[in-house]
Amino acid sequence: MAETLTLHEDPRSGNCYKIRLTAALLGLPLATRQYDIMKGETRTPEFLATVNANGRIPVLQIGKGAEALFLPESNAACWYLAHGSALIPDERFAQADMLRWMFFEQYNHEPNVATLRFWLRFVGEANLSAEQRAQIMPKRIAGCAALALMNEHLGDTAFFCGDTPTLADIALFPYTHVAEEGGFGLGDYPHICAWIARITALQGFVPMG
Questions:
Q1: CA angle (144, 122, 105) in 5-degree steps
Q2: 3-state class percentages of the chain: helix first, strand second, coil last, to nearest 5
Q3: The CATH classification of domain 5-82, taken from the options 3.40.50.2300, 3.40.30.10, 3.10.560.10, 3.40.640.10
């Protein structure tokens, strides 16, 4: 891949980390431009006009100048980077199964595990609105259910789609391995803990942050 790649990110974000981890495992050079979402740096008129009109990161920038392309959404950016690599299975069902776990991450896992991490570590429970505080227990219950399902699945397989890592693992790893920052006890999920160790042992692995 010959393009110049730039990741617009906040390094505290697991969604941003997915893209950095994908690039690292594939040996792809990736420049970064950092923003502080707590200070509203992705909501400025310049960012909205030139990077992402939705005011969110991560955004993968492909190329430079007037010809640059901007790709929001973490899992889409990971797919772009990994296209044609071993991180995306060739077989039709295996590829669909990988996507199933990536959709699960965004629908069942991230809205609960990642949200509680953000609220409790970065915002602070005392600074949450009454509506947010009322959601803590439902999100904890849903997050525990997601982790329990993952743990059960990993009891029979080394990675989410078989014996080798795919984008499914990269999508689920970032917010899972820091789930304790949101109040989830990873010690309750031994198969997840073993999987985390396998991910961190991969050649090219880079830590979050």
A1: 35
A2: 60, 10, 30
A3: 3.40.30.10
Q: Which CATH number fits domain 92-200: 1.20.1050.10, 3.40.50.40, 1.10.443.10, 3.30.70.270?
A: 1.20.1050.10
Residue with tokens 């059960």: 152
Q: pLDDT of the chain along its 209 residues, tens only?
A: 468 999 999 999 999 999 999 999 999 999 999 999 999 999 999 999 999 999 999 999 999 988 999 999 999 999 999 999 999 999 999 999 999 999 999 999 999 999 999 999 999 999 999 999 999 999 999 999 999 999 999 999 999 999 999 999 999 999 999 999 999 999 999 999 999 999 999 999 999 98
